[in-house]
Amino acid sequence: MPTETAFNESELALRWNVSTKTLQRWRSEKRGPPYLKLVSKAVRYAVDDILAYEQQQHRGMREDAPLPPLRPLVETRLVAELAAPAEPEPKRYTLSEAVALIAQYGSLAAAEAAVVEKHDDAQG
Q1: 6-45 pLDDT, tens per residue?
Q2: Which phi and psi angles does 42 have, rounded to 5°?
Q3: Cβ(9)–Cβ(43) below 8 Å
Q4: Using alpha carbons only, what angle is made at residue 91 by residues 85 and 97, rounded to the nearest 5 degrees?
């Protein structure tokens, strides 16, 4: 897997514990690290520029103090996913399916309860 050479706005916001709105404001005020604005308004920050900016911002630390490691985004996402299990996505119905289920069961909630009950009966 190739290593990322740039962070997007969300990744940098996560690294620095600031909001994406803060990064947007900094860009409008000509603050923060250099960035590249791609088509469709996608913003990228080169890792080298991030590290150089962090080095410039060192205050109250020894000059040779190490910066925090750049963790791959995949690792960050995996940790976040393991920490909070995702809830199952609700079932989506087409309009014709919803109308048919409401006609048969009286409501979508009653239809879903019946489906769960049938599934539990089949399992048990």
Answers
A1: 888 888 888 888 888 999 999 999 988 999 888 777 899 9
A2: -75, 130
A3: yes
A4: 175
Encode the chain in three state secondary structure.
CCCCCEEEHHHHHHHHCCCHHHHHHHHHCCCCCCCEECHHHCEEEEHHHHHHHHHHCCCCCCCCCCCCCCCCHHHHHHHHHHHCCCCCCCCCCCHHHHHHHHHHHCCHHHHHHHHHHHHHHHHC
Tokens of 93: 């119905």
The residue to which tokens 């069961």 are assigned: 105
Q: At what angle do helices 9-16 and 73-83 cross, to 10 degrees?
A: 70
Is the CB of residue 13 less than 8 Å from the CB of residue 26?
no
Q: Structure tokens of 56?
A: 């410039």
Exposed/middle/buried for residue 85 (C-beta within 10 Å: 0-12, 13-18, 19+): exposed
Q: Global pTM?
A: 0.49
Vertex 13, ends 53 and 45: CA angle to 5°?
50
